[in-house]
Design goal:
By secondary structure, this protein is mainly alpha-helical. It contains 17 helices and five strands. A three-stranded antiparallel beta sheet has the order 1-3-2.
Length: 354
């Protein structure tokens, strides 16, 4: 026989509040009886459910949160649990709290910059330019907030995090190329996450923030390993970058075209895809267009070639890596890298799981 937990009761209240809000948005006339019943259930949740949630008991900071603040966090948790990763606006949360019987002024205080939810790091907040904070702000629950509604943590302390491994020199140029390929793969995941977010309001997901950090850390570590590697300046890609004064974004575009050709047999790539790959923030989509334009260094020097230079639309012209560039990058590792069969299989699996 199934028994509902306190958390189930809380989520049912959130369901009811969201349903009332959706009815209002559709122009329905709200029943006073339905509102009264919803507010009675909210009061019951505050009195009986909140105190019995294990996550609330285990976090001392949560003891300072008043019931309406906890309800805001519960609504955000409910949204996440329902499969929605998009943020909720301050105006939307104020409206939901109004359905629960709380005045808008109280909700505005709780969501404001000096309110307990943001001061206590319970919320991740994005404020659009020229937006009115907190009404126009968008909110995600912080990891600490999500844990309030999760199962009790184990009494066994987590294992200590092992110390970061010190950078080691590359064994050879082939290993260096593989690390470039892995960096390109992480940047591809970052591009996917950027377009999962809301670029119009500059809202980013925690996944995007993590991938930005991971991509940057991979690049820094790669450069550290190069600095420790004897003869690294003679690696084909490094000599090319030095000769033509190529930066990080140029190298990433070259790596993308190189591995697309070698691994996937894709000889031409859309410039828009290359632009997305080098964009960690929405403004990069506007500022970095020159990287793939005819006036950019890569095309100007003949490092990458366009399928049809006469096209009037810059981002509609497919790009490919010049053969002489491929020859130079792979000159000391043969016409193609000496792939270890198992390593190739693992790498292709990682690519497919992206």
């Amino acid at each position: 026989m199934h028994h509902s937990s306190p958390l189930d009761g809380l989520l049912e209240v959130c369901d009811q509040l969201r349903e009332i809000q959706d009815q209002s948005a559709r122009g329905a006339i709200l029943s006073e009886d339905a509102l009264r019943q919803a507010r009675l259930r909210v009061a019951t949740v505050q009195e009986q459910v909140f105190p019995s949630l294990p996550g609330l008991k285990q976090n001392p900071k949560a003891a300072n949160l008043e019931p309406p603040a906890l309800l805001i966090l519960a609504l955000l948790f409910h949204r996440r649990l329902s499969g929605g990763n998009d943020a909720l606006s301050g105006a939307h949360l104020c409206s939901l709290l109004l359905r629960a019987g709380y005045p808008r002024s109280q909700a505005l205080h709780l969501l404001g910059p000096s309110g307990p939810l943001r001061q206590g790091d319970w919320l991740l907040c994005e404020v659009p330019r020229q937006g009115f904070d907190p009404l126009d702000s968008y909110f995600h629950p912080s990891p600490d907030a999500l844990q309030l509604f999760g199962p009790p943590s184990s009494a066994t302390p987590p294992a200590p995090t092992p110390p970061a491994q010190q950078p080691q020199p590359f064994a050879d140029e082939t290993e260096y190329l593989w690390e470039i390929g892995r960096w390109r793969q992480i940047c591809g995941q970052r591009a996917d996450a950027l377009f999962e977010s809301d670029p119009l309001h500059n809202l980013c997901s925690p996944r995007l923030q993590h991938l930005r950090h991971t991509a940057h850390a991979q690049w820094v570590r790669l450069r550290q390993r190069l600095a420790l590697t004897p003869g690294a300046r003679e690696f084909g890609l490094e000599r090319l970058a030095s000769t033509f004064k190529l930066g990080q974004d140029h190298i990433l575009i070259l790596a993308h075209l190189l591995f697309a050709e070698i691994l996937d047999g894709e000889f031409y790539m859309a410039p828009g895809e290359c632009l997305r790959l080098v964009s960690g923030h929405r403004d990069d989509l506007l500022h970095k267009r020159k990287l793939v334009s005819p006036q950019g260094r890569l095309r100007r020097e003949g490092i990458i070639l366009a399928d049809n230079e006469e096209s009037a639309k810059m981002l509609a012209v497919p790009l490919c890596l010049a053969d002489w560039v491929l020859d130079q990058v792979l000159a000391k590792v043969g016409r193609s890298p000496k792939w270890n069969p198992q390593e190739l299989e693992d790498f292709l699996r990682d690519e497919n799981e992206r």
